[in-house]
């Protein structure tokens, strides 16, 4: 303690530190030598064998195994000053701060956290982890293949399945290399191969699919793989190799236990279908009966009825029908979709499940069952059978006592349609009248058909009555409105008929009958532009309808545009090249245009198809008379004589052609034949007198006497007719007495014969012109094509078993169709007169 001295209170312990000593004042920044030494020694490795400043000993390098020298650290374990360690140079601590350098000539920037080194290298996966990743990839490929198949992209599905197969093979090889063969995923292998086989089958690569299925079936490691023989049987069925198909179906059936009833029933049904394709109905019946006794279903029951029908066993068909209608569908009651309270959330749930896929599947199943039952009833009650009515009544009674009560009305309706096809209108009307007390839909359909029937029978009052009844039951029924318009059309109230047709089109814009009849109504009203618009719209809907195209041609002709009319008629010929009326119409239009060669071509083609059309025969005969080819003209007028043997004018023209061609003997024989058939014909007697005089025959006086008597009788008859007309002129409508059509045929042809007789003194061209003019004055129908008979309007009917309305059939017989029927029968004759 003697060496310890206490400081005085006035002494400052920290004094002297801020004192400046001039000796140490040196400007290092301006010292060039010092700065040069600093720049040359900073960060440089110390020389070998030298001593490091600030250390007790020098550092000697060691030689590594590769021959390079590694400097040793100091004895204190700290890095050598200026040496590089971990890529960073140790600074000269006497000059610069540790870890900081203003230049980057040596080492890197300041990075105490080591971020410049980058992320750590990934750890290597173990073989087991690689296998798991590969299995996940294979499962993904299988899912992508199935999704591509569900969207219809079969080629992509097949490519994904092949890729999955390649990856699965690589996975098995990798397991073998790692020595884990016992851990192979058999389920994954089975899935890959089965998916590949399915994709081959969907792409119709049947050999590859069979090869894949065989590989799976032969692999004993796969349990229950024998079921895939069903798929192999399906492929053989597609290839029409029925014997192998049955073989594989039966092999698959043997490998399925009785516990799987649904699967066994489906395989048995497949076997029955193959037997049906082979025509072995007895074997098919045995298989289907087995199904109906163990696990009945709708499809098997319907096919059993078909087999009995093919075998001709009516009684067994009835028994099978009873089994069919007793098959439970397993469909929930529709009442479950009716909300029981006012809860909004429950209503939303019920509305959602009402239209989901499960509900849609149930509706499809029910619709298919109803279709099968209806078709089976039609098979049991063939229309041509004498016991049709009793058989149908039996089917209706059976259906009424089953779960398909609502089908009874449809069967009754079908019975009425069948009676219509059999032309038994009374029975059909009796059946349809029973629907007057049914619900509004059935009532409207029945009244529509009744209106159609009465319209066919020309009972317009009853047709109008039931059309009103159908409209009152369902105002939006386009067929009822069309029938109502038809009844008004016949009464020539065209404005009102057009209103009904327009209303029908407002309710159903696709009602082609209303649109067609509206166009006809506008034609009657002479509104040609509106009629043209209607038929152009109808042509856009019915592209290949020859009736519509003919109406367009007729309208253009009425508008005076013959070229457009010819254009549309050419389109009609493209659709129906053997329509003789259209060919004759084309001939007439070309004749009016002055193109005689084209007219001759079309008239000749029409005559070739139907050589009994008088106007065509007349035009051809006149054409050859004008061309001075009397022999050809004789051929056509002789055919006219055969068609109308009571018309004397054709025979007189034949005789005249013989006379003009110079064959007077043949002309004389023809006139004699006419005189024997028509002894009072003045024209024939006049030519007989002339020919007998020219040929100096002894019968001249006889024919002259007969001619005087015939002329006197003719004058007496004319006087009686004139006096009778004068007496009745006040009470009868006059205006047709002076027309060419009202004159007797003999009188009209008398002027023709006189002109021909006088034509011997004129030139040949004048003869042809006068003859042509007189022949054209004969009675020739110039009415349009649809005006030939009562065929224009389309009466409509509604059939709940099929489509409500039918395509327009202008100028043709109307068909009554049923959606599920096996054939169509024509009903009635023409509908309406023009």
Question: Main traits of this protein?
Answer:
Serine Threonine Protein Phosphatase 5, Tetratricopeptide repeat, flagellum, cell projection, 34 helices, 834 residues, two-stranded antiparallel ribbon, disordered N terminus, two-stranded antiparallel sheet, TPR_rpt, mainly alpha, disordered C terminus, elongated
Describe what you observe in this structure:
There is one protein chain. It contains 34 helices and six strands. It has helices spanning 32-41, 127-150, 154-178, 186-202, 206-218, 229-238, 242-254, 261-278, 281-294, 298-311, 314-325, 344-354, 357-380, 388-400, 407-421, 425-433, 440-456, 460-473, 478-490, 494-507, 512-524, 528-541, 546-558, 562-575, 580-592, 596-609, 614-626, 630-643, 648-660, 664-677, 682-694, 700-728, 745-758, 764-776, and strands at residues 62-63, 69-70, 84-85, 88-89, 814-816, 825-827. A two-stranded antiparallel sheet has the order 1-2. It has a two-stranded antiparallel ribbon with strand order 3-4. The longest helix has 29 residues, at 700-728. It is elongated, with a radius of gyration of 54 Å.
